[in-house]
Amino acid sequence: xxxxxxxxxxxxxxxxxxxxxxxxxxxxxxxxxxxxxxxxxxxxxxxxxxxxxxxxxxxxxxxxxxxxxxxxxxxxxxxxxxxxxxxxxxxxxxxxxxxxxxxxxxxxxxxxxxxxxxxxxxxxxxxxxxxxxxxxxxxxxxxxxxxxxxxxxxxxxxxxxxxxxxxxxxxxxxxxxxxxxxxxxxxxxxxxxxxxxxxxxxxxxxxxxxxxxxxxxxxxxxxxxxxxxxxxxxxxxxxxxxxxxxxxxxxxxxxxxxxxxxxxxxxxxxxxxxxxxxxxxxxxxxxxxxxxxxxxxxxxxxxxxxxxxxxxxxxxxxxxxxxxxxxxxxxxxxxxxxxxxxxxxxxxxxxxxxxxxxxxxxxxxxxxxxxxxxxxxxxxxxxxxxxxxxxxxxxxxxxxxxxxxxxxxxxxxxxxxxxxxxxxxxxxxxxxxxxxxxxxxxxxxxxxxxxxxxxxxxxxxxxxxxxxxxxxxxxxxxxxxxxxxxxxxxxxxxxxxxxxxxxxxxxxxxxxxxxxxxxxxxxxxxxxxxxxxxxxxxxxxxxxxxxxxxxxxxxxxxxxxxxxxxxxxx
Amino acid sequence: xxxxxxxxxxxxxxxxxxxxxxxxxxxxxxxxxxxxxxxxxxxxxxxxxxxxxxxxxxxxxxxxxxxxxxxxxxxxxxxxxxxxxxxxxxxxxxxxxxxxxxxxxxxxxxxxxxxxxxxxxxxxxxxxxxxxxxxxxxxxxxxxxxxxxxxxxxxxxxxxxxxxxxxxxxxxxxxxxxxxxxxxxxxxxxxxxxxxxxxxxxxxxxxxxxxxxxxxxxxxxxxxxxxxxxxxxxxxxxxxxxxxxxxxxxxxxxxxxxxxxxxxxxxxxxxxxxxxxx
Lengths: 570, 278
Prior knowledge:
The complex is a heterodimer of chains A (570) and B (278). Chain A is 35% helix and 22% strand. Chain A is α/β, with parallel strands linked by helices and 570 residues long. In chain A, helix 18 (471-484) links the parallel strand 17 and strand 18 (490-494). In chain A, helix 15 runs parallel beside helix 17 (441-452). Chain B has two domains: 17-138 and 255-278, no CATH class; 153-239, no CATH class. At the A-B interface, helix 3, helix 4 and helix 15 of A face helix 2, helix 9, helix 10, helix 11 and helix 12 of B.
């Protein structure tokens, strides 16, 4: 039975010249776990908003065709009735939470629809979403993943048959991402909910989803079982979607003749084991491959932390200690990745270096000079911080003026020319008059990077430069970061993105509860089981694949995998 | 001496940071939800407040005012009000009447000039502390439920609790935008008196400028919130009497409330007795 039927739907946003959804047809079966994939701007979010009735009831526009939820036309139902059948969790889910405590928020919708047992329903929803025992907590006490679960619980409380989630794990570290998908799986299997996710992470699609629908230019290209869908490597890559790394690796090897013509492409590590089993490992023989971290480095220290302690004020009770007696040296020219779970102190470490936070004890030296008595303004010529949230870097009404701002304020020589050059370098010239906030995710990121290096700092700090981006945009930012390697001497990136870490970083620092628990090259970090278990960080899928095939293998990219396993068959 | 001044001004600047303000707002709203005052029925507290907000204005007898002041001072302590609010209270009262009191003393004022001023100060202080107890000791949700019971429109009570939900977020955003200005701007040299003045003017200008990005960022965020409220049936709730009943069902007058009213009543009766005797 179809729980959602969309027939010949065409929808145009008010004021738009072209329809966002164009003669779209889609059937979703009851009990399905469906992933919707597609290019940026192909209408995924719009489609989901037609399913929960926000379109056409709340957002006007031109609406043709019909959307049937549980055999009823959404046009004839009100938003409240539809909400009881279709729950929705936004991509920016924290803005979806309107009440201060957990139970309050989970039961808020039920109360608004005058259900007598609203508290009971809220509790039940929290239980189903794995938040039992946190009913009385305040929402700012929750971690990012828990906040997402709460947003989900708010939707579940109305007991809808269908749950729609817009990019549920875009902002989360792998541990929390697993948690979310575990909950969704349980809702799907135990409680019989139909789950629809908009998802870019194909590894998760392979592990959890039953079907995949590809949207292209506002219509459904196809709906296929997940395995089959993910094997269409070339078609997906055309749409800027990247299949799991094991699938891509097998696809490339098949094309090169290393795998048999009739090989069925694997989509998970489990399936990969069978396919790659016959390949010979020759990792050690490969001499052309060398870890970038082993290059000779200059030894001049640019930042040093000496016994630094920091604590935060808490709303209740004692101040929370972030760092205690932290010691750390950062050398000139290093490309460092700072990793660790949410709340490990990554952002605090960066703010300490820029002088925005003063340590309660100990001192921080910048090129051998203490910065305790220096104003952050004076440091900004030497060190620059790019925030996680690019919106907070836009303080003028066009990105051109934003990039120029710092140089103009300091009367830097030739600042007009330099602004022009930066716009050119980051491919922003055509967008220079637009307000930064109105750009797409990737453009915003590029603009914030341009702002960050405007003053030509010797040290650049980037807080999660690839968070919240779809994979295509992420690749683009990664390319930009690689291009920047020659411009800025010392760069430190705080990130959850292990592909970025593996492809870019030369030194990795692992923070866990305010302590540096590991510091070294990628082999030292990812080869260390204890560190991985302690922090919940996870290497890229291809690395795990290599390890399964041969415990001595260290391959971080698809290319390295092919080099190390690709020489021939047994 | 120089060093001490430096430390003191650092300390004050630290207190004025956005982070500190945000923390105080949260502390004020939710940090004291386990006190005796916070657990009282909001309706009882509102009636109690009505008495202490109105009656002092019409009474001029010192013992009565002193008694009322002592009582609200005790409740303020019991409500564990955040430091910033108390500081604002002290500054507020002093700027209203306290300075007159000091000035009259300096210019050879005697008891006759002081007593009327003292009375005025006590009145203002009593009313302020009563407000602080109720509006700061209760968490915003209970307060808004109480107001709703007395017939305030649902929209007002929702606004109160939503404002408290949004305020910390807004302040964090504001703090980050300000930091952007600080890091990328070029603050004037702050040495010397003119430098200090110029620095202050610069700071104020930055704060004004920071409002533009703050508003736009907030507008962008609130789009999701508005849609989410629609889905969660907020519009439905605003007009449905059934929902109102459901919300107010959680209000209950208990033993503690009786005790609180009884003690307050007894104490005020004693002060009235004292007033008539003296």
